Amino acid sequence: MRRRSFLSGLLGAGLLLPALSGCAGNSANTLKIAYQQWGSGKVMENFLAKISEQFRLSQPDIQIHLIPLVAAENDYFTKNELMMSSDATTPDLVFEDTFILKSDVAAGYLQTLTDRVQGWEPWQQIYDSAKTAVTGEDGKIYGVPAGTDTRALWYNTDLFRQAGLPVPWQPKDWQQLLADLAVLKKTLPEVIPFNIFSGKAQGEKASMQGFEMLLYGTESTLYDEAQKKWVIGSKGFIDSLSFIEKIFSEKLGPSLSRALDANLTETVYTDWLPKAKLAVALDGGWISNNWVPQAPGEWPEWSSVLKQAKMPTQHGQAPGYSTLAGGWCWALPTRTKKADLAWEYLKTISTTENMMNYNIADNGVAVRKDVAAQEKYRTYTPTIQFFTSLVEGATFRPALAAYPQISAAIQEAMEKVMISGTSPQQAAEAYDAQITGIVGAEKVTKGVAK
């Protein structure tokens, strides 16, 4: 069932709203701010507590009600949309994943910020690629980016030396990457050579950090911007599925039972990487958050053991690497009655110093030139300059209204070839049929290259 239909059913049945309405008051002097909380993490809560202190200096009568939604990614989207769909529960300011933004715009949940950002200095500091991620299909602005992320290969230098592989390491293409993974498998049989998130249990991580890191390293693309159509029948799609098939059929990745475990992320970050059970991980720049002092997988030596390499393009073609960028933004729900007040709060969030402090605390990549230029930002972690350098060549997902369903279809195609019995060609054909059914035959085009 599509999530929109699911939400409508919940609302029609009167379900879930009573529980949600109890989490925030509707007082005229209360500002409600909703955001995702990852487990017991307090990065955003601590950040917003400081912002609220600053805000009350000029607005002493306003109470700030923080609404942390502790949920996995897809569940967060559903809870957030459910709140925004009712006058009784809507937040006044909400933290949105740019991947879901245009879907929420299409559903009428968010109001435009176009007039508000005109002439606003912080907006001028945001990289154009990040602005694109918060621009709707109507050309209007619907969010203020807070940070982005990029992805690359993390590799264990100790294991590489044991396997006789070069350090530093930078594979030139997929063929060399696969060959080096085969060397790791042969020389270090107790070590998992490679982790790439794949399959339905991994959700959007599989689509973005897995499949699209491959696809955008081919000559194909997921969505043709010129034609405004989704691409089907592309060679790059089949080649990307073939890469996934090879990883699992040749046992270059985790066992299927581990790869399809919904808790794989925690296992990778707090066990496999710090305990040298995994040689190479295709992952984001933020993962060292797991190893800092007092973190779940505290690992003081991580920066000397783990190094980074760019994910190569399929044949080493320009620009030589592929990376996907995502990120989150702040947005104003359509139903809020306190849009002006919420905007003032967002302006407090958006000072150079506050955004720098947030990016550092979140181990994120800056989307603003003024923040990226700060010495404190440039030196806060050993990897930040590497991951920031990838932004220029980054691809942002086609965050259109249909993308969440497209993403789910990608995960299904990946899982089919992981489990075996379905060829990459067959899985791609099934994907093509699904996409045509989702968006309509008039919204697809065959085999378009970049």
From TrEMBL:
Any single Pfam family the record assigns to this protein: SBP_bac_1
Cited Gene3D superfamilies: Periplasmic binding protein-like II
Keywords (A to Z) from UniProt: Signal
Protein name: Sugar ABC transporter substrate-binding protein
PROSITE patterns the UniProt entry points to: PROKAR_LIPOPROTEIN
InterPro entries, sorted: Bact_solute-bd_prot1 (IPR050490), SBP (IPR006059)
Native source organism of the sequence: Psychromicrobium lacuslunae
Signal sequence segment: 1-24
